[in-house]
Amino acid sequence: MRLREFKPSVTIFFWKLYSADVLRKYDLKFNGRAKMKHRKFGIFIGKKIIRLLILLMVVCIASFWLIEQSPIDPVRAYIGEMSIQPEQRALLEEYWGVNTPSHEKFFNWAKNLLNGDFGVSLIYRMPVTHVIKERFTASLILMASSWLLSGVVGFILGIIAGMNSGSLIDKAIKTYCYVLIATPTFWLALILLLVFSVYLGWFPVGLSVPIGLTAEEVTLFDRIQHLILPTLTLSVLGVAQIAMFTREKLIEVLSSDYVLFAKARGEKGLDLVLRHGVRNVALPAITLQFLGFSELFGGAVLVEQVFSYPGIGQATVAAGLRSDVPLLLGIVLVSTVFVFLGNLIADIIYEFIDPRIKQQEATQ
Amino acid sequence: MTASGTISKGLFRGFNLRQKTILLTSFISLLLIAIVASNFFIDNRSMSTDFESKNLAPSFDHPFGTDWMGRDMFIRTLGGLGLSIMIGAIASTISTILSIILGLLSSVGKIEDSFVSWLVDVFLSIPHLLLIILISIGLGGGATGVIMGVAFTHWTSLTRIVRAEIKQLKTQGYIQVSRNFGKSKWWIAVKHFMPHLIPQFILGTILMFPHAILHEASVTFLGFGLSPHEPAIGIILSESMRYLSAGYWWLAFFPGLSLLIVVLSFDMIGENLDKLMNPKKAHE
């Protein structure tokens, strides 16, 4: 009896020892793995940051060189149409450094950039950072909403087309996408403006807020109403690309062996597509959507011009047309970072989030 | 894909798919050539202003209507399309030549290869439209600025294709044999790779056309490049913006629609040629 009573406690004792050991080992292994993963991610991000720095340096040099080549007269850009005395002109020329050599000018500009000083915008008469911040926020709302809308609508259209490939719906969606890809963005914007604002009068003709109101009087509804048409135009173009891509991918997935097997098990219709198709197509589609930041920016420039929406695109056009060099260079740098971020997110999704790639690593 | 689907019945019955594709392609090409050729026959008289017939809605005399100076929009649109096609042709030819040079350069060695792919990455890292604007400003604007801006930014995708193709060709046996014979890398690039790549270049140029035309129109629409009295589509459309709220819809509608049709035609030609030349796609 005594022995019997004793035995379990011994067992428990040993079990405790053993389990602590196992737990410790497991803990170590788990932490080690997590650490390794963190390290891998750290190295990945570090490499990307170095790439970004090199890229920004090259973009700085190249765009500065391009602007230097052009016959832009900064004094003329600054004073506009005013006429001035020759002495004043000489002062301004000295201020803008017309007669300083290019490389010196570049180093001055680069030094200021490193200190976070992008210079003063000639047409808005305030610091470039300030202009870009204000304009970019306005554009971000526009770009983000149309990006989301085009992603969702495009994905759904692509799934519908891919599910019914060869059918009438598929052909309709395909033709629609073909035509959309060939449509000039600004023309589409003009037509929408013509139909919805001029004829139907549903939406305002332009700007982001009604004219003649102070900032406090503008309601959220006003803002949204001014945002709808630009967003619609911008998203219509994104739809085509993502829909075509999703369609192709889904058709590819649906002709795979595992879908054949699923069909043999009796799965069919929407259920099959949702279980096996969408899950496989979603990540590449999201990745593609993140890679489209460059096109999104270009589209925003055109759409903002048509709807006179006061965003970064309109500022870009104004800076280009009226030779506002500091602002133009600032926008080039900021948009480069913007596109880079999109590519970076796509890379992260591809390398770290896609479960298939995780699995590959685990089996290696 | 769409083209062959729509013409498989009716009008073209009795031809096989290949003949139909050839017929359709030549028909569209003829249309585009006609647009460009018509530019040489437009005399200045019909482009001139006529204030008695201003702001007319579309009619039999003026199929696209007239503008606020009484100019016939149909003729202006034709002129604009011709200009767009010509600018597109010059720009995509330059782009193709650039991508031939860079593609072949990437085949020479490892350093050259990574340089080319780095260059592609750099060009893709600035938003496309912004880059065109930047280049056209750098070259002092005008038609040259726009053409060069479009030409220097469209070579990236074709270069990537060429690079991938060459990588694949390099694994072929006869390239190894040629190398063992002591032929130089440049010799192999020109004598062995080039003949393989020529169809790619022809196709690449044609498929570059739609992009080039659209970008040219966008940049002129924004006000960079061509001077306001040229009848470019971008300029016509940006002028029309001022008259939209007056309800002159034809000023914007028809020029843009014709541009869309031209772009679609180039797309179709490119795809049909791909079908005709690429044995893998011949059976689709």
Describe this structure in words.
The complex is a heterodimer of chains A (364) and B (284). Chain A has 364 residues and is mainly α. Chain A has one domain: MetI-like fold (Orthogonal Bundle), CATH 1.10.3720. The longest helix of chain A is centred in the N-terminal third of the chain and has 68 residues. Chain A is globular and about 90 Å long. The two termini of chain A are 53 Å apart. With 284 residues, chain B is mainly α. Chain B has a single domain, classed as MetI-like (MetI-like fold, Orthogonal Bundle), CATH 1.10.3720. Chain B is built from twelve helices and no strands. The radius of gyration of chain B is 22 Å and the shape is elongated. Chain B starts with a helix and ends in a 7-residue tail after the last helix. The interface between A and B is large, with 53 and 43 residues.
